[in-house]
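Quick question, first post here. What does this chain look like in 3D?
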Amino acid sequence: MARSDNRRWWALGALVLSVLTLGLDVTILNVALPTIAADLSAGTGALQWIVNAYVLVFAGLMLPAGALGDRYGRKRLLLIGMAVFGLASLIAAWSSSAAVVIAVRAVMGLGAAIIMPIVLAMLTVLFTERERGRAISFVVIGIGAGLPLGPIVGGYLLEHFWWGSIFLINVPVVATAMAAIAVLLPESRDPHPAAADLPGGVLSTLGLVSFVYGVIEAPGRGWDHPLVLAALAAAVVLLTVFVWWELRTPQPMIDLRLFGRAQFAWGTAGATLASFALFGLLFTLPQYLQFVAGLDAFGTGVRLLPLIAGIIVGAPVAEKLAARAGYRLPVALGLLLAGVGLAAGATTGAGSGYPFVAAWLTVAGLGAGLSLAPAMDAVLAALPPQRSGSGTAITMALRQVAGALGVAPLGSLLAAGYTSKLDTAGLPDPIADTARDSVAGALAVAARTGDPALAASAHAAFVHGMALALAAAAAVALIGSALTAAFLPGRPHRDIEPHPTPNPHASTPTA
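> Answer (accepted):
Ran it through. Tokens below.
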């Protein structure tokens, strides 16, 4: 495929469609959980695992999936990942029990773990260095747009169809993307692959799964719960052994020495910290819009659109800034803006009007768009094309872990702030416990007992907890801005190993 052939931009459309589907799937499920609970008689534990089974597998298998793409062919593996995701979505749509939904959600996580790093790795094959920044900005827009679109699409589907439609919608999108990928994408792989690193794959998977499991369970069980401590301790041991093994084996699955290069390390750090802030925002604000502002799921999704607007504006601006001034300026500026937006969000009160929320949400989205695209470009520019799958897998795995971390500690902080401010004086213990458990529980109790004072206290307490969570997320973004301004190289460094400008023929002959 000639470099001037515009078909590669159509191929980029298929890749963007792939990551848009993944982003959409993360949040569209949250809208349907109450309906699934009623139709499948699923308890709270089952609902949590419908969400968490996907996250665990997604985070745990990204590293080996990226390495397998380098070894056996990225196009081939991407088609397999899309097929797995689409087939699992089809089965989930017609599931008759919560156990089946949990199982197929885990399979969907497997498909997503293959898709995400391979999509980014393909950009080094399809586009020249000059074009890659623009291509990455489109992918970032796809990833970011899918998250707030979930409640909008999910709300519409649940109004007009049954809960399985939130999974079924994935099938035609996946089929379209697969057809375009099959026709438009060249095959690429490492022409001299290392021997399969089975110990590295097992250690990384078990370590990441243990870590994410511990983080997921911590808000509900408590950070000092024996199960949480055991999971986190196992993760530390497994990941330490993984690092030791990868640094000593002659043919590692992941070249961890990449972290010794400032461009790769701080590009990854910038993307990870931006993800922490973004996921923390997407965890807290929808609850505010639903429980404090009184909106339904569809209305909540619509009011998250300024976030998309900010990302859509920020990503292409970042590409132009990076081309002129290097990576440091847009990444540091983006994290600074994200921090400012989140800090403004921390001042939101129970009576704040939506225009104020839309303003700081736009600023935060602009910051996310400015920082994510050049941070990912810095990572890709630091990788030899033949190892782009395993290299991007490291970054995407850390972003996924950051997403879990953005929800768990910030969720714990929100819950602690809420509980500390909620006034349950005079309520019987069982009712008080329900009110303290969540703002939704408190509002349900207030509605049932006709207690407007409890509802007002719950609103004020939740806003207090949200302020603490958003302030913490803002602090992380601002610290990230200072660190990337200090350490992220401004211009690409060709200090890893020389390799030609990426092009569609670079990595391997067509399989």
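Residues 494-511 have pLDDT under 50 and may be disordered.
The CA atoms of residues 26 and 38 lie 21 Å apart.
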